[in-house]
Amino acid sequence: MVSEMPKEYQALSSSLTHQRSHIFEALAGLGGEDLCRRMLPSHWTCLGLVNHLSLDVERFWFQAVIAGDQSAIADAFASASNAWNVDPDVSADLVLDGYRHNIELSDAIGATSSLDVAPAWWPQSLFGSWRLDSVREVILHVITETAAHVGHLDAARELIDGKQRLVLTD
Description:
7 helices
C-alpha cells in the first residue's frame, strides 16, 4: 500500500506548482526577441529571470541544499557567471526546458523529503548567520521567491505587449 503524501506537503507543493505555472503563463506567446529584451537598466530579461529560477532557485535550493547533491553544490561555487545573463547563443527553448527539468527534479526531491528535517547541505559561506532550518522552510522560501518573480514577469509582460493576466473591472 502506497502511503499518501502528508496534507501539509500537498498544500506546499500545490502552491509552488501554481506559481511555476504562472511563470509559464506570463511568458506564453512571447518570441525570442521579447524574451531577451532588456527590461531594466540592470539588463534584466524575462529569459534571464527564468534561467535564474531554474539554476539559482530550483537547482540550488532542492538539489544542492535539500538533497546535498555534490554536482549541484559544485555548480553553486564553480560558476562565476550570473544565471541572470543568458548567452545569446542559448535558445529560449533550451532555457525553458532546463527550468521544466529542474522543476521535475525538485518535485521528486520534495516528495521524498520530510518537511521537518534539516537541509542536507547549507552554504554557510554564502549566507553567514542566516539559515533555513528545515525542508519546510526551504520550500516556503522557494514559493516566496518564485511568487516574487511572477510579479516581475507580469509587469514585464504588460510593458512588452500590454497583456495582463487578471484584470478586475467594475
